[in-house]
Amino acid sequence: MKQQGVVLVFALLVLLSLTILGVSAVSSSLSQSKMAMSMQQTGLAFDAAEAAIAGVFFESEDEILLKDEALTDPLSEARQGNAFDPEVDALSCFNDVDWINRQMTTGGLTTGTRHVAAGNYQNQPVTQSWSRTAFVREQACRGSSNVIGGSNINCHVFIIRGCGRVAEKATVVANSLAAAVLAPASQ
Predict the structure, then answer these.
(1) How far apart are CA 51 and CA 168, in angstroms?
(2) Dihedral sign, Cα of residue 34, residue 36, residue 37, residue 39
(3) Is residue 112 left, alpha or beta, with left meaning phi > 0 and alpha meaning psi from -120 to 50?
(4) Is the dihedral of CA 74, 156, 173, 60 positive or negative?
(5) Are β-strands 122-123 and 153-166 bridged in parallel, bridged antiparallel, or unpaired?
(6) Which residues, at least 6 apart from 112, have a Cβ–Cβ distance to it below 8 Å?
(7) Angstrom distance (rounded) from CA 184 to CA 151
(8) Are 162 and 129 in contact (CB under 8 A)?
(9) What is the residue-level pLDDT of the chain in tens, covering all 187 positions?
């Protein structure tokens, strides 16, 4: 009888050990699945932020938009507004009053259009994409040839922040880019 009791206790210990290993494996699998989903959503938000930056350059190079007196591209709009001081100002994804705003939607980019309509960048999963553009300063172009350096041309420096958010996530992914554009020197 004592042997049967020992075997029963041993069997229960083995069963308990297997149960603990199984629960641990399931917990680890769920944790890894959550991490993979989070990384995927962060990647989608980053892609949306990059698309927002690309949209600013698309509009700024759009010949139809540039020729239309009634429309302005985001860089020209930013140049007409207040200058951005990196020491004092913050180019926040949530400040849509002080900086030039553009939206990327499922409609994509269309020539001759200011992309200011609200909408989703993609619908599955729901992702938003928008940009903020600010003029920083006018300066002599660095690395330019003597021909450009000696002429009446300067570089206008801008900061462009692309922002992206997946609806299921509370965070926004942002990427910033500094751009220098050749332009006539201010008098």
Answers:
(1) 20
(2) positive
(3) left
(4) positive
(5) unpaired
(6) 62, 64, 65, 68, 71
(7) 9
(8) yes
(9) 566 678 888 889 999 999 999 999 999 898 998 888 888 888 999 999 999 999 999 999 999 888 888 888 899 899 888 889 988 998 899 888 889 999 999 999 989 889 999 899 999 899 999 999 999 998 887 765 555 545 677 888 999 999 999 987 888 899 998 988 887 767 6
Task: Name, in order, each residue with C-beta under 8 angstroms of 66's C-beta and a sequence gap of 6 or more.
Answer: 73
Give the Cα separation of 177 and 51 in Å (integer): 12
Structure tokens given for 42: 């962060």
- Burial of 74-87, coded b for 16+ CB within 10 Å and e otherwise, reads bbbbbbeeeebeee
Beta strands in the chain (DSSP E): 100-104, 122-123, 126-139, 153-166, 173-184
What's 127's DSSP letter? E
What whole-number distance in Å separates Cα of residue 161 and Cα of residue 42?
16
151: which 2 tokens?
């002429």
- Residue identified by tokens 């020491």 is 87
B/e letters for 42-62, b = 16+ CB within 10 Å, e = fewer, are: eebbebbbbbbbbbbbbbbeb
